[in-house]
Design a protein that fits this description.
α5 runs antiparallel to α6. It is globular, with a radius of gyration of 21 Å. The protein has one domain. It is mainly α. The two termini are 35 Å apart. Helix content is 69%, strand content 0%. It is built from 19 helices and no strands. It is found in: Endoplasmic reticulum membrane.
Length: 380
């Protein structure tokens, strides 16, 4: 695997996009917070902790103090890893450790994603896929102390192991993915899909059956471990589901959130309001990735299309019906639909104007949304 990865290209892309976000952190934070026409410096501690907002603050707080009742919406592996290293380094290190874990996980994700894409579409499409992922407008969540990149690392690792018929590795990656995010349990679908054509081999011998099917049980085990914790501590194994109501999320048909967003965008929210802009971003991300799902079904391996379809339905099942933006956080969730970036790369290669438009649009939006996050403005 190591010989097949163009480490030079991946490292350059990784380093340059990290430097881009570091530059935004320094320049934007200072320009927006320091007094104008003044030599007064900003608070250095605040400058270096500007990424500790929203869910990042929740993860670092869980890592330092443990779970409170409303925290159980956040799955445990990421804060556990932060705690494991930060307890050794000291209380000052939680944000730093979380950021390092997120960025190292992104680097691993880029390697797996390159290998997966190259296998089907060649090196050029693979490099474009990585580029679009790193420059996507909400890709700053891979830099901040969020668990998106850690989940994506285990998810792409699971897919790569399945393609190589490394069943135990696929199960292990799936186990950790399910411990990182609630959607990790959906990796049961690609595992079963890859196993089904080999059912004759699986059933031929007891050893073959155990070797191929038992690792699949590790995936729901990851979710089960957290469910057991919720049961023992909070009295319900599904507490991580029912707590969604605290954030205004409720079970609904998948099209309800989209319909409510369209209604709110055009009829309920005043033109130019902050709520309207957020609705537009989340709705555009949701509909855009549904389009990529449909467009890519002829080019992508069927397992990717099936998994993305189930993933999209899953994130639409719990819209934030009590919020002005029912599709809250979807512009972050779609980052995890990695095969859609393969489709985007195929479209970008076929239509150079699309590629040029994306290269003009993505970095600008990435900068704007990163600045919003840094300044603690409402961001998913």
């Amino acid at each position: 695997m190591i010989k097949k990865v163009p480490w030079g290209h991946i490292l350059w892309l990784f380093v340059l996009t990290r430097l881009f976000l570091v530059a935004i952190t320094y320049i934007a934070y200072i320009l927006f917070t320091a007094p104008k026409y003044s030599s007064t410096p900003v608070d250095v501690v605040a400058l270096f902790t500007t990424w500790n907002h929203w869910d990042a603050a929740n993860y670092t707080r869980i890592a330092e103090y443990g779970y409170l009742p409303f925290d159980i919406a956040f799955f445990p592996l990421y804060p556990f890893l932060i705690a494991a290293f930060s307890h050794l380094l000291g209380s000052w290190s939680y944000i730093l450790v979380g950021t390092i874990i997120s960025n190292l996980a992104l680097l691993g994700t880029l390697c797996f994603l390159y290998l997966l894409t190259t296998e089907h579409f060649g090196t050029e499409i693979a490099k474009r896929t990585l580029l679009y992922l790193c420059l996507f407008p909400t890709a700053f969540f891979f830099f901040a102390p969020y668990n998106e990149s850690l989940y994506l690392f285990f998810c792409t690792g699971c897919f790569y192991a399945l393609r190589r018929e490394r069943w135990w590795w696929a199960g292990i990656f799936g186990f950790f993915a399910a411990l990182t995010r609630n959607v990790g349990i959906l990796l049961l679908l690609p595992y079963f899909y890859e196993l089904w054509p080999r059912r004759a081999e699986v059933l031929a011998t007891a050893k073959g059956f155990i070797h191929r099917t038992f690792p699949m049980l590790l995936i729901p085990l990851g979710t089960g471990v957290f469910a057991l914790y919720c049961w023992r501590v909070f009295g319900s194994p599904l507490a991580f589901v029912t707590v969604q109501a605290h954030a205004g999320r409720h079970l609904a048909w998948p099209w309800v959130g989209v319909g409510r967003s369209l209604q709110s965008l055009f009829f309920l929210q005043p033109f130019g309001s902050s709520n309207q802009a957020h609705i537009l971003l989340n709705l555009a991300a949701t509909l855009g990735f549904i389009v990529l799902l449909i467009v890519g079904q002829r080019s992508l391996p069927r397992v990717y299309t099936l998994w993305m379809a189930v993933f999209m339905v899953y994130i639409l099942l719990y819209p934030a019906l009590e919020k002005p933006d029912p599709l809250l956080s979807n512009q972050r969730f779609v980052l995890e639909m990695f095969p859609a970036f393969m489709t985007l790369a195929l479209v970008g290669k076929r239509y150079p104007r699309v590629h040029n438009s994306l290269m003009a649009l993505f970095p600008g939006l990435l900068a704007i949304l990163s600045i919003m996050f840094l300044l603690n403005r409402w961001m998913v």
